Amino acid sequence: MNRKGFLGIFCLFLLMGCENPRLHLLNVFKSIEVEVSQNSVAYPLLTDICDRYGPRLAGTESAARAEELTAILFRSYGYRNVFFQPFTYNQWQRGKALLHIDTAGSFEEFPSLALAYTPSANISSEIVDAGNGLIDDYNGKNVTGKIVLIHLGLLPGTPENVKNTNRAQKLALAVAQGAAGCIAVNASPGDLPVTGTATLDGGMIKIPAASISMEKGTQLRKRLAQRNCYARIQTDNTCRPATARNVVARMEGYDIPEETIVIGAHLDTWDISPGALDNTSGAVSVLDIARTFRALGLKTRRTIDFVLFMAEEEGHYGSELYVREARHRNRLQGIRYMFNHDMTINTYGFNLMGRYESEDFFREIGELIQLTDTSFSNTIAHFTHLGSDHAPFIFEGISTFTPLCEYMDFHSYHTTADTPDLITPMMLEKNVKVSAMILYALANAQELPATLFTGEQTRQYLIDNDLQESLVVSGDWRWD
Ligand SMILES: [Zn+2]
After folding, report:
1. Quick one: pLDDT band at residue 5, thresholds 50, 70, 90?
2. Ligand 1 centroid vs 389 CA: distance in angstroms?
């Protein structure tokens, strides 16, 4: 909403003899600030969930126990409409992964992790350095039957106009080029191999892929520049059907209940760490925002769905299911925003994902947030991507946004180092406070600037935001 819009509502409220809406928002924001500062449970919940359940790969026993706990928590906060959304998906299970590098007859084991949805294998071959693993990196190279070494990010010295693609696309390209295996190098420093999904369609890919740390990758690349090196990759992975459940707490709107704001976070993690940042941080934020709303007795004109999604890591299965269910129940058209929390700490603004029509509204609300939280810089960004649970909502034309977060470093991402010692209570509270404030403002606004895109508008939006190519590669482009 623009300033004129606010003025209009202001006058309307004066005529109606109601409290000035800006003053009302400011008062609610102040109460949120006090409630979260004094009573936030986000941090103790984060350490409890991480310590009690550890890694929570969707469909495992520990994940199921975490689903149960969060449903109990929502109910304990006072939500009466709490329900599960069960679904079955193709779960990948990690076995052992061994990577040996042979340089001039001397064998060395490199610490490694299999990428998810890579198969069991036992292969040996020469290593070929395929740089960033992008199409141009294969020019003039014959990698048929070889093991390719690829960087998961962009190597230093890569020209600025080169656009990176995701890990699954790089693996698909390596398969298409005829590689027999892949060594994938972590894009972040920290001396740790990284995991993550290598599949584009949920099935097992054809070749084994072992990740190594950035530091080991640099070392191997230097060796390869001097002499031929060989690798042996031994992996032992399987797939099986597994059942997981989204957990939803619904707070019905008192005025326009058919309109919904969805706030969600994935509760699942990879299998190698408790996922303190990715994504216990987001899950406990959503729980604590839900708790704050009930603790303050906040009522909203629109319905709010607080959702903990499962199986985000393997391919957004839980959020896809939520969207399917909403369509089935004729609720999809009423979803005005999807507010996604994935690795959310130290929030200083909002990423509106290329939905410029919402900018004025967010900026105005952000100015009020700044009056209660001076550390909030009210930055608006448009970093559009499809790498989390907001993606299935984008495909339906729904406006999505996320907190804009400040990370000290990113070394723990998808590694064994994603542990609670990385997180402080303050980091979480900064997200909970401003996210609760914007959520309240959206759920109570007289009018919202977000429009539901038509199929054609969604198509154009994806093209304008450079997302068409990756969707074509993954087989998810459904607009032509
Ligand atoms: Zn995540």
Report:
1. low
2. 9
Judgement on whether residues 13 and 159 belong to the same structural domain of the protein: no
Q: What's the length of the chain?
A: 480
How does DSSP assign 203-262, residue by residue? SPPSS-EEEE-HHHHHHHHHHHHHS-EEEEEEE--EEEEEEEEEEEEEE--SSEEEEEEE
- Tell me how far the alpha carbon of residue 269 lies from the centroid of ligand 1, in angstroms: 7
Q: What is the whole-number distance in angstroms between the Cα of residue 352 and the centre of ligand 1?
A: 18
pLDDT digits (tens, 9 = 90+) for 294-316: 999 999 999 999 999 999 999 99
Provide the strand spans (E) within 267-333: 302-309
| Cα dihedral 249, 254, 257, 261 sign | negative
Whether the Cβ atoms of residue 32 and residue 432 lie closer than 8 Å to each other: no
- Residue 138 domain boundaries: 95-236
Regarding whether 424 and 334 lie in a shared domain, the answer is yes
Cα 413 to ligand 1 centroid, rounded to whole Å: 9
The residues, any chain, with a CB within 8 Å of residue 320's CB and separated by 6 or more, are 392
Query: Residues 228, 285: one domain?
Result: no
**How remote is the CA of residue 278 from the centroid of ligand 1, in Å?**
5
d(CA 210, CA 204): 14
pLDDT tens sequence across 255-275: 999 999 999 999 999 999 999
Judge whether 315 lies within some domain: yes
pLDDT(359) > 90: yes
447 Cα to the center of ligand 1, angstroms: 31
